[in-house]
Amino acid sequence: MEQEIINQKTSVALIVGVTGMVGVALAEALKKATALGGPWTVYGVSRRTLPPWFPSSLLDKYIMLDTLNKENTNKILSPLSTQITHVFWLALSFHESEEINVSFNSTMLSNVLNALTSTPNSKLCHVTLQTGTKQYMGPINDSALSSQLVPHDAPFKEEYPRLPFPNFYYALEDIVTSYQQSFTCSIHRASIIIGASSRSYFNTLLSLSIYALVCKREKYPFRYVGNKYSWEHFWDLSDATLLAEQQIWASVTNKAKNQAFNCTNGDVFTWKTLWKVLCNVFDVEFVPFDEKEKFDLVDFMKNKGDVWDAIVEENGLYKTKMEEVTCFGALAFTLKLKIQHVCSMNKSREFGFYGYANTLASIEPWVERLRQMKIIPK
Ligand SMILES: NC(=O)c1ccc[n+]([C@@H]2O[C@H](COP(=O)([O-])OP(=O)(O)OC[C@H]3O[C@@H](n4cnc5c(N)ncnc54)[C@H](OP(=O)(O)O)[C@@H]3O)[C@@H](O)[C@H]2O)c1
């Protein structure tokens, strides 16, 4: 990795969105003895109390705060502005209208940055912002806009121009760069993220795990949820640990300041091969994709909440409601796009970050992690 590291006397991280997949991975990575820029003091923010699976020893302070609330954010974070050196922005407020996404997410980020820069002795020197490949595809989940979108060609490159549609990623980038007199920033663009949490709004692996477990229990075939195109064409994914490593690297490396980087595993796969891995991990029969058979995941899972409740109860799992921890609609929609979803990792490597993850080999360890956290059964 790039060695031009800034010597920080006291690094104090504020992870906003600490209970999401990347939030947990980031707290773990920052607390490693070998963490770049460390040793780190780590503060974490989210709205709800920490779930029992969250290792609270990773945090020096947990702050329960809704960053949409300007007054509370100011009251709670301003006194910490003389300590916090780095903000890692991983919070997400998701709505089907992109205009609402722009408004809510911008307000949350502005509230936090205003609170931390409001005092003359503010220590804030760097903000990392995690966004994603909708940078290159546009607001695909906005039903009024999605049919008008023309995505950029794959592999997606950081220098591609913005698309002419509202996009909360653009709004957040503009907010952090508007503070360039006060602190540096780095932008981290993820593909679909693979990690372990029950507090993530879009959790593909947990959604697929619950779908597989329900199929296994009820003896339904574990059918593919996307289309023939994604079954056969190349895709990429982003490992939560890799995202954490890239964000830490950029936050303490001079050359990476004020840059945007894609952050994907660095390899590609087809969903056909990944489906075989899932079948092995969950011990369900592999069913080849059949275009003639129409299958709607949302429709199929609509009445399966009781089955999940029974799995949770019988296995003494951490209590979750299927509707709250899965994202079947967004997942099926995304895997029915007719695009090769592949990012270029060249810029990141050229700037000195060489991290990677082996996508197909990473699935089983993440599923095992969900099992250890008692979010899914052993
Ligand atoms: N998930 C993916 O596969 C994926 C893929 C590509 C890009 N991205 C992008 O990555 C960014 C982060 O998303 P993510 O999926 O990593 O996040 P996530 O896993 O859904 O985690 C969101 C975190 O933010 C907290 N949070 C939500 N609203 C909050 C608020 N008002 N105040 C304080 N904390 C709040 C949540 O906890 P509480 O709910 O308890 O507050 C949680 O800890 C987003 O821009 C997203 O679009 C995600």
Structure in words:
- Helix 1 (21-30) links the parallel strand 1 and strand 2 (40-46).
- Helix content is 37%, strand content 12%.
- The strands form 2 sheets. It has a 7-stranded parallel sheet, with helices on both faces.
- It has 2 domains: 11-195 and 239-265 and 343-356, NAD(P)-binding Rossmann-like Domain (Rossmann fold), CATH 3.40.50.720; 204-234 and 269-340, no CATH class.
- The protein is globular, with a radius of gyration of 20 Å.
- Helix 1 crosses helix 8 (240-251), helix 2 (70-77) runs parallel beside helix 3 and helix 3 (98-117) packs parallel to helix 5.
- By secondary structure, it is α/β, with parallel strands linked by helices.
- NADP nicotinamide-adenine-dinucleotide phosphate (NAP) is lined by residues 16-23, 45-48, 65-68, 90-93, 108, 130-132, 190, 192-193, 197, 199-202, 204.
